[in-house]
Write a structure and sequence with these properties.
6 helices, globular, single chain, mainly alpha, 71% helix
Length: 134
């Protein structure tokens, strides 16, 4: 049985903003550059519908703000919205999105000399909470 998921351009933009925004939040929280590069690879390595949406060339990710708080005000609600809209259509793709973002976050938070920075660890928890709020 195949489920067809219909995503509007706005839905796709929300997914990309949420996923790439999560990586941006990790970077803004002091995650190491190497970890951020690995997180980006994790997003572009996604499969399924989520993989197609994240791999699409687009200019619809508009993350603005002069502080981590302003960035979080955009990204955390986008994460919840993305997980929710996928969850309403296909639980497997919702899980795929959640797993993809969490793998990217884990890669970004990669240990720096044996331990993750406290700020990056807290941000990872906030990202997970936003995904779970859907």
């Amino acid at each position: 049985m195949s489920i067809t998921i219909t995503l509007t351009d706005q839905d796709k933009s929300t997914l990309r903003t949420a996923a790439y925004g999560a990586v941006s939040l990790m970077a803004a929280s002091g995650a190491p550059h190497k970890g951020i590069a690995q997180a980006s690879i994790a997003l572009t390595s996604a499969t399924g519908l989520v993989g197609h949406v994240l791999a699409a060339k687009s200019k619809d990710i508009h993350l603005q703000g002069k502080s981590v708080a302003e960035l979080a005000d955009q990204v955390l609600p986008a994460l919840t919205a993305a997980a929710s809209l996928l969850g309403k259509q296909d639980l497997r793709e919702a899980g795929n999105f959640r797993d993809t973002v969490l793998v990217a976050v884990e890669a970004a938070a990669g240990p720096r000399k044996g331990e993750t920075s406290p700020a990056a660890a807290v941000m990872a928890r906030k990202i997970t909470a936003a995904l779970d709020a859907a």
